[in-house]
Amino acid sequence: MASAASIAASIASKTKTKKKHFVAQKVKLFRASDPLLSVVMWGVNHSINELSHVQIPIMLMPDDFKAYSKIKVDNHLFNKENMPSHFKFKEYCPLVFRNLRERFGIDDQDFLNSLTRSAPLNSEAQGRSGARFHTSYDKRYVIKTISSEDVAEMHNILKKYHQFIVECHGNTLLPQFLGMYRLTVDGDETYMIVTRNVFSHRLSVYKKYDLKGSTVAREASDKEKAKELPTYKDNDFINDGQKIHIDGENKKMFLEKLRKDVEFLAQLKLMDYSLLVGIHDVERAEQEEVESEDNEAEEEGESDGGGIGTPPDSPSNTLDSNKPLSPGEFDPTIDVYAIKSNETAPRKEVYFMAVIDILQHYDAKKKAAHAAKTVKHGAGAEISTVNPEQYSKRFYDFITTILS
Amino acid sequence: MSSNCTSAAPVSASKTKTKKKHFIGQKVKLFRASEPILSVLMWGVNHTVNELSNVPVPVMLMPDDFKAYSKIKVDNHLFNKENLPSRFKFKEYCPMVFRNLRERFCIDDQDYQNSLTRSAPLNSDSQGRFGNRFLSSYDHRFVIKTVSSEDIAEMHNILKKYHQFIVECHGNTLLPQFLGMYRLTVDGVETYMVVTRNVFSHRLTVHRKYDLKGSTVSREASDKEKAKELPTFKDNDFLNEGHKLQIGDDNKKYFLEKLKRDVEVSVETFCLTDSVVLCLLSEALSCFLCVRVCQFLATLKIMDYSLLVGIHDVERAEQEEMDVDAVGEEEEYENDGMGGGVLTGSFGTPPDSPGNPLNCGGFFGPGEFDPSVDVYAIKSHDSAVKKEVYFMAIIDILTHYDAKKKAAHAAKTVKHGAGAEISTVNPEQYSKRFYEFMSNILS
Question: Which of the following CATH numbers is that of domain B199-267+291-316+367-442: 3.20.20.220, 3.30.810.10, 3.10.25.10, 1.10.10.10?
């Protein structure tokens, strides 16, 4: 009867719709546990598609650093499955961030796929002031929820940051800022910034440190230590006798980059940033993989969704190399911060180290805190609130000493 | 020597750079147009088709789909100002319904999108009722008509029944093929647009055009109209010329069947089995359907529609092409971006326009056409006086018989007398008269 024919027609229609054109991406439903995540996915998808219709300029103009694109969606009885009916999405300085992505070697389509093929995942990591983190499903990018003050600070530094990236050819330990957005869902505004993941998208990190070069109040709390992957701090690092075993060449390159980076930060009067350190233990990872395979064999078909590699059924990013990488191996164009341990290291490790949290400006608030802490600990004590110049020096010196 | 093809290089360099790892069928679309509203239309259709590609096709439409809309408001600041206004709004009515209709009319969404976005729609000379504005897609496959908000309301009123009718006749109808309905807001001004399939060919030129209603009062092209490049002639002009559309018996029969179904009321609503009764007389009648009248236009109290007739003269077209080639050879160094002296209007695609995939394959001889693209085309029969191709379909179906019409009826009866054929009658009379007139002009 006619109805069967039309059902068959509508099922066939999706292939019919796309049969004449090869389009690499699949149908994206933007399904997520949280409407906010659906909106991020939709928004990034929209923004990259919009940009694909805007010619890439020969160079950026001053206006590009003040620009934004805003879109407001109001649907009625349409597309309600996965998206809220009303939401807004704003992208700040689209052309600037497109240019930055290019300078960081990130193809816009890959960026789009990472953030939209599957929902970003909640991350346990907590930033300063308990900021919320997500990672893209393929763990290449980190999405951090930030404040409107952070957005304002980004705008303040963006031109100089961009210039710095141009000059160092994208070769830096500073955060790679890739996109900045404001989402409005249910009347609530959320600001988000996307950066490249410091850690690997494949190799698991078993120990993590947040180092500032200060010794006051720089220890992981008991609550923190109870987490699956606690963020340890300066004192823990020293007390653990932790070392970073990298060879002379790597150390030299690393410190050169760091020196330039902190000089830049001091010039902009930024401070309170950290060096994020993640350690991948090759043997330990191999052991975990063996164990998880055993588990899989026992509980046939049940995957524990842990952090080792990509879950078998997740759609792969085209940048994934076709040949499997052996233990401790990585693709340096993806895991850009990875450094192998040297041959004399006691354990075979891979280190991931980069600067994070650079948006704190030295201002009246800091000046007030400086005065307060001087009173509390005395003038000679190393207090965490110093001026940006002092901060950068202390930071750099500390990092130099931890690299053996 | 002049050349306008200079903008290609930087665009394509950036395109390959951005897209180097992926093969994606469409090119970079800049939505460049002579007017902001056209850019917004292009942007909007591009956006809505993309949105729909992320919404799964449902097994069947739901009542809510006929009340749905999607609305988007764009506010850019110092961004993307080249071709688009900074602020605009775009609303699509009943997206799922129109997607389904496009499918039933065998129009692939990607092709639809390409036709409307790869290059700006073109202004059309023709004027509908009340001087409504017409545009055609750059490839002449689709017509975009500016309508009133009352028309939008009427569309909503008839949409469910229209959809049902299309389902039942399997898209095989002379009624307009409604493919999309939008509201654009630019500079605070709202414009409503409806997209339909072009009645005429995207390739073959129409040399003569008629708008026929079956009425004889005030049904003659004005002098102003006749001065145009392609005037719209009317009923009286047609009759005075003693014209007949010579399509042959089979085509005539098939055509009138569709017409009847489209316009008339019938008391009976019977139906042979759903399987087709095959007529063995000719291919043209292979879809001869049972007389299952769908009670459409008349029952919906719609009237004042017309049969739009376009005539392509095969010999004349061949002559015109030879003239063009001659001109092209003379001016071979001049590239004005349109290709060698291609006529405006629908004569083929300018050589440098991006090819729609539907163009590929099959080189057509004079008077030949692809019936899956030019769906309304009918060839003149072999023993016809002149070799012609006719394009005939119903247009302007959104006028509802209501108080306004009733008032006009009264007024015209006074002016012309009760016996005169006046154009304002009731829908049932209108449909009967319409059908009668059309039967007579075919042979």
Answer: 3.30.810.10
For residue A112, give the CATH number of its domain.
3.30.800.10
Q: Is A229 found in the same domain as A166?
A: no
Residue A305 is predicted with a pLDDT of 40
Q: How far is A103 from chain B (nearest CA, A)?
A: 12
Cα A345 to the center of its chain, rounded Å: 28
| H-helix segments, A271-363 | 282-298
Q: Are residues A78 and A162 in the same domain?
A: yes
Which of the residue ranges A172-176, A328-332, B142-146 would you say has the lowest mean pLDDT? A328-332
Catalytic residue set of B? 145, 304
**Which residue of B28, B54, B74 is in closest CB contact with A52?**
B28
- Average pLDDT for chain A: 85
The domain in which residue A388 lies consists of 200-283+328-403
| List of chain B residues with pLDDT < 70 | 1-27, 125-132, 265-295, 328-362, 403-410, 412-424
Kindly state the DSSP code that residue B200 receives in the 8-state scheme: S
**pLDDT score recorded for residue B27:** 62
Do the interacting molecules here have an ipTM over 0.90?
no
**Closest of A309, A70, A111 to residue B73, by C-alpha:** A70
Contact (CB<8Å) A18/B67: no
Q: How large a percentage of chain A has pLDDT more than 70?
A: 80
Q: Of the candidates A197, A230, A259, which is a domain's last residue?
A: A197
Please report which helix (H) or strand (E) contains residue B311, including its range: strand B306-313
Residue A307: per-residue pLDDT: 38
- Nearest-Cα distance to chain A for B381, in Å, is 33
- List the single residue in B54, B69, B168 with the smallest CB-CB distance to A28: B54
Using an 8 Å CB-CB cutoff, list chain A residues near B108. Answer: 16-17, 19-20
Q: How many domains does chain A fold into? A: 2
**Of the candidate ranges A109-123, A247-261, B62-76, B244-258, the one whose mean pLDDT is the lowest:** B244-258
3-state secondary structure of B171: coil
Across the interface, whether the CB atoms of B77 and A1 are under 8 A apart is answered no
Higher pLDDT, B244 or A259: A259
Which of B262, B299, B303 minimizes the C-alpha distance to B405?
B303
What SS3 state is found at A274?
strand
Domain ranges of chain B: 36-198, 199-267+291-316+367-442
How is residue B282 written in tokens?
A: 């000719």
Higher model confidence: residue A306 or residue A273? A273
In a domain, A309, yes or no: no
Which of A16, A24, A108 lies closest to B18 in CB terms?
A: A108
| Residues A126 and A176 both lie in one domain | yes
Indicate the class that CATH gives domain B36-198: alpha beta
Token digits of residue B268: 């009976």
Domain presence at residue A179: yes
The per-residue b/e assignment along A178-190, b for 16 or more CB within 10 angstroms, e otherwise, is: bbbbbbbbeeeee
Last residue of a domain, one of A181, A197, A213: A197
In this prediction, residues A165-178 reach a mean pLDDT of 97
Q: Using an 8 Å Cβ cutoff, are A275 and A208 in contact?
A: no
Query: Burial of A301 by CB count in 10 Å (0-12 exposed, 13-18 middle, 19+ buried)?
Result: exposed
Flag whether pLDDT at A24 surpasses 60.
no
- The answer for A 13-42 residues in CB contact with B (under 8 A) is 13-14, 16-24, 27-30
Q: How many residues does chain A have?
A: 404
Q: Are residues A169 and A209 in the same domain?
A: no
Dig out the tokens for B443 from the structure: 């042979």
Q: Report the pLDDT value the prediction gives residue B400, as an integer from 0 to 100.
A: 82
On whether both A227 and A165 belong to a single domain, the answer is: no
My answer on whether A186 and A102 are in the same domain is yes
**pLDDT number for residue B349:** 39
Q: Are residues A190 and A237 in the same domain?
A: no
Q: Which amino acid is at A342?
A: N
